[in-house]
Amino acid sequence: MDTLQHLMTGLAAALSWQNLVFALIGCVLGTLIGVLPGLGPAAGTAILIPLTFRLDPTGGLIMLSAIYYGAMYGGTITSVLINVPGEAASVVTCFDGHQMAKQGRGGTALGIAAIGSFVGGITATIALVVVAPPLARVALSFGPPEIFALMLVGLGLVTGLAGRSLLAGLAMAVLGLLIAMVGIDPVRGAPRFTFGIPSLYDGVGFIPVVMGLFGVAEILLVVGAPTRQVIATKLTSLLPSREEWRRSGGAIGRGTGIGFFLGLIPGVGAIIPTFVAYVLEKRISKTPEQFGQGAIEGVAAPESANNAYANAAMIPLLTLGIPSSPTIAVLMGAFIINGLTPGPFLFQERPDLVWAVIASFFLGNILLLVLNLPLVGLWARILHLPYQYVCVGTLLFCILGAYSLQQNVFDVGVMIVCGIIGYGMRRIDLPIAPLVLGLILGPFIEKALRTSLEMSGGDFSIFFTRPLCLGLLIVGALILLGSALRLAPAEVRKASAD
Amino acid sequence: MRRGWQVACVCLLGIFLGALVTSLGYSLTDALGPGPGFFPFWLSAIGIGLTGAMLVQLARGRILADAAVEVLPSRQAALKAGAVLVALSVAAALLEPLGFRLTMLPFIAGLLLALGARSLLAIALTAVAGSFGVFHVFYYWLKVPLPIGALGI
To answer: What are the residues whose beta carbons fall under 8 Å from the beta carbon of A204, sequence distance 6 or more?
Structure first.
């Protein structure tokens, strides 16, 4: 009852004309980011943070959330029309979506993707409303040792599932944590790793780092890539036929379930639910040979899973303060910039804001559906935009975002350096996600660790004598062990050969 | 790609070693418990262990680093990436002395030309919109502080 009351209050706030406009702008910009090849949701969300600097936190976070799930949908359009996923989660949609476009059914593919995304997003948001408050209440009973263990589990999940080497993932996470140590020590107030540079006293800014690692690095890669051919397809018929509805209904339902449950697990990433949903549909289909040839279930299931995942991934962030992916980490950064720490306390301290943002997810998903069905033709035309203009526009926003956060040109320098590092990492396939998560979780992990040790007088047994903390640490160890086994050399070679 | 991983490991090792030495300059413990150097010290030590293990695995061929994948970009791609980095660095250097508008105008026009855009009208319009237009929107409408240069522009 309490939840329903909060949700209604949130809905009223989200329905104010200002917040509706913010959600609308966010959906449009997010879809645009998804449509523009090479600009992923993490970079896109990061470079648009400056738009929200002067907004009230609720409006700003509503806009950034809308950008996030708008981008998750927008990637579908490029998958269908140019066989290039606008973001990683849309890879699977290429398999059948692009085949449908080649057969002149591109409009139907985009239509079912919009409908599947809507169903997935709305269902996951309803589940979020049900699950989040009790989970946040449980998390409120956590002390510093449990928080420390929980964050290690979250970081371990992201690290374990990233890249081709567990050691590399762990090293990147440690590097991220170490970068987070730059600046004033949060407990004692002593400067660390500042080397006499005043700009480092506030630490290395999260936004310049993310803009560099994702935005600038992406542009450095894109400028050397060949141009892509846009498929000319009929976009007049967006709604599926009766037969296609029949075939898509179950696929949307199953995709939504898979996306939601995998979205609850930090580190899974958006790509895994879409693959699982696709493989499941192919396994249970009476006509598996049609998959890869333009089967509508091959679009409906992964797209539903994608959006269900995107909304469900907000649950670990809002209830436990753990970002599941780099894009969610960027959103967490936006919360922190606004003076808010995502986690269970946020439900107590700012219920108005949390519930307005959650309620905006419903409105955002409706807006996306309303926007995307009639505007599919417009998005398709944007694909013809020359890449030079996209690159320069992205760099312009990167400079603007990096500078304007603290009005410090030093941050622009940090962004450029991180752009070079990110470019190098992408070239040799080193995982970036653990570094970003380490950077954002670093101060919280250190504070929880040191407070725990102060509580115990420096005795590490505090982590092993509290049952919940011990349980979480065992889970973390099992995750890393599982990842180590998964990435055993023989298996890696076989996977590569496959 | 294997060479790329080796270079990355050596760089990481250098960073972690530097951080370890620097963190020894901060107190590891104090009267209240762990000091400012405690967490960075142990992180650096763990990082050294991890990168050392990576180097050993690479030497034994146990990390999949596909030798066939080219790490270095093509000459064309490298030139364009270089142009982007030079333009970004120059823009960063001039941002405060010249101001946002006067820096972004040549930044956008120059970079568009360097990346192969040919329509001079489109380049000029984009440069004006991206410098003066964006400044107007962010500075006056969104109240985001952007630098105004010595010339007052």
So the answer is: A179, A180, A182, A183, A414, A439
Please give the helix or strand (H or E) that residue A212 lies within, else none. none
Q: Which residues is A191 bridged to in the sheet?
A: A184
Question: Rounded to an integer, what distance in angstroms lies between the CA atom of residue A278 and that of residue B107?
Answer: 44
Beta strand A183-184 with B29-30: parallel, antiparallel or unpaired? unpaired
Q: Does A178 touch chain B (CB under 8 A)?
A: yes
Candidates A63, A67, A65; CA nearest to A35 is A67
Mean pLDDT taken over chain B: 90
Q: Which H or E run includes B30?
A: strand B29-30
Q: In terms of Cα–Cα distance, which of B63, B61, B131 is closest to A164? A: B63
Is residue A292 a contact partner of residue A99, using CB atoms and an 8 Å limit?
Answer: yes
* For range A25-40, the mean pLDDT: 82
Euclidean distance between CA atoms A54 and B116, whole angstroms: 36
For strand B33-34 and strand A183-184, is the pairing parallel, antiparallel, or unpaired? Answer: unpaired
Chain B 111-150, CB below 8 Å of chain A: which residues? 111-112, 115-117, 122, 126, 130, 134, 138, 142-147
Say if the Cβ atoms of B40 and A428 lie within 8 Å. no
Report pLDDT for A487: 59
Q: Are A224 and B80 in contact (CB under 8 A)?
A: yes
pLDDT band at A465 (very low <50, low <70, confident <90, very high): very high
Instruction: Please answer whether residues A58 and A19 qualify as being in contact, where contact means their C-beta atoms are separated by less than 8 angstroms.
Output: yes
Instruction: Mark which residues 393-422 of A lie under 8 Å from B by CB.
Output: 393, 395-396, 399-400, 403-404, 407, 409, 412-413, 416, 419-420
Residues A230, A223: Cα–Cα separation, whole Å: 18
Mean pLDDT within A352-367: 92
d(CA B14, CA B142): 43
Q: For A282, what's the count of Cα atoms within 13 Å in the CB-facing half-sphere?
A: 18
> How large is the average pLDDT for residues A412-422?
96
Q: Which long-range contacts (CB under 8 A, 24 or more apart) does A282-291 make?
A: A291/A95, A291/A96
The pTM is what?
A: 0.86
Please report, as a single letter, which amino acid is at residue B128: V
